[in-house]
Amino acid sequence: MVGVVAYGSVSSIKALWETRIKKSKEEEQKRTARGGAPGRLSVGAWEDRAILARLKQKLQTEDGRLILRIEQEEWKALPGCLVQLSQVQEWQIHRTGLQKIPHFIPNFQNLLVLDLSRNSITEIPKQIGELTRLKELLLSYNRIQRVPEELGGCESLERLELSMNWDLSELPDQFRNLTRLQHLDLSLNCFSVLPDCIVALPALVWLDIGGNCLQHLPEDIHRMEKLHTLWLQRNELERLPDNISRMASLDTLVLSSNRLRDIPPLMEGMSNLRSVCPRSGEPVSPCLWSVHHPQLRTLSPSILRFVNFRDNPLILDVTLPPIERTTEDDEGEDDREMFGREFMQMYIQESRKRAFAALNMHRVNQTDEDS
């Protein structure tokens, strides 16, 4: 009887420990799956508490919005314990070496702004499309090579910045589902064409696709009815479609440093285009202005109205006439943009004169031959 009792006690103890070990392994697997670091559960729990306390120190409240702000600290990956701060409405994480957006991002349904610019992110996870309340997604200066079709599920998105990702060259057709998108920055990438899914965006008013490899613009570009600002600087455009003159809302058009040979005569009637631009010379992208001149972020868009044809191999050599001074003492600065709207109108008028002169010459020669 003693042997039976002893054997039964050993079996019970063994079963108890096997149950504990199994449970411990299951908890470890669950913890690893949600992003925690592997290791003993007790040690991992203390690590999570320490990391969470550190993250809580990064929380700030501005204008009633809870913001997680991390600047110039090394965070190559975000820990799974971050989900405990799901009430955060805005992420501002810059220059941290962050390599990926965590797969648990859908836990942050209160997120309105996701600003992860100037990191080392290589891809946008498919789970991003589950953030249906997200209004701003800022991923400039990263290493992103493609945009997932699931991004089209961010139905509230109003602002998207993907500048300076170098290898980015196309967008999925589902991109057209972003019906509330107003501001799009694709500058300094590798686009060779303007995707149709961009032309189809009904609410888009601001587009920067400068510093790419665009060789032509779509003939139906006038479908972008609400677009008022279009940055096309530093591309490879050789001509402009005539329908660009039908973009009634367009008041800022930058075409500097392209390969344009001519200006469409129909653009003469684009009265919304102005000649106002920075006094420093050639205009630069507003996203770069804001780096050196933060006050420009608050300026009305109407202040930035202009058109610019600087640094293009245009066929005709046209120069604006000097300003007539009212008095000898009048030494006011010539603040006209030398390749702006006045230049455009003068170029079109000169082109028309030469066309008429060539036509008249042809008629004269034809008459002489007939006689």
UniProtKB/TrEMBL annotation:
Q: Where in the cell is it found?
A: Cytoplasm, Myofibril, Sarcomere, M line
Keywords assigned: Cytoplasm, Leucine-rich repeat, Muscle protein, Repeat
Name the InterPro entries on file. Answer: Leu-rich_rpt, Leu-rich_rpt_typical-subtyp, LRR_dom_sf, LRR_domain-containing
Q: Does the keyword Acetylation apply?
A: no
Q: What's any GO biological process attached to this entry?
A: cardiac muscle tissue morphogenesis
What GO cellular-component annotations does this UniProt entry give? M band
Name under which the protein is recorded: Leucine-rich repeat-containing protein 39
Described by its record, this protein's role is as follows: Component of the sarcomeric M-band which plays a role in myocyte response to biomechanical stress. May regulate expression of other M-band proteins via an SRF-dependent pathway. Important for normal contractile function in heart.
Per the UniProt record, the source organism is Oryzias melastigma (Marine medaka)
Specify whether Repeat is a keyword of the entry.
yes
Please give the SUPFAM superfamilies that the UniProt record associates with this protein. Answer: L domain-like
Entry-linked Gene3D superfamilies: Ribonuclease Inhibitor
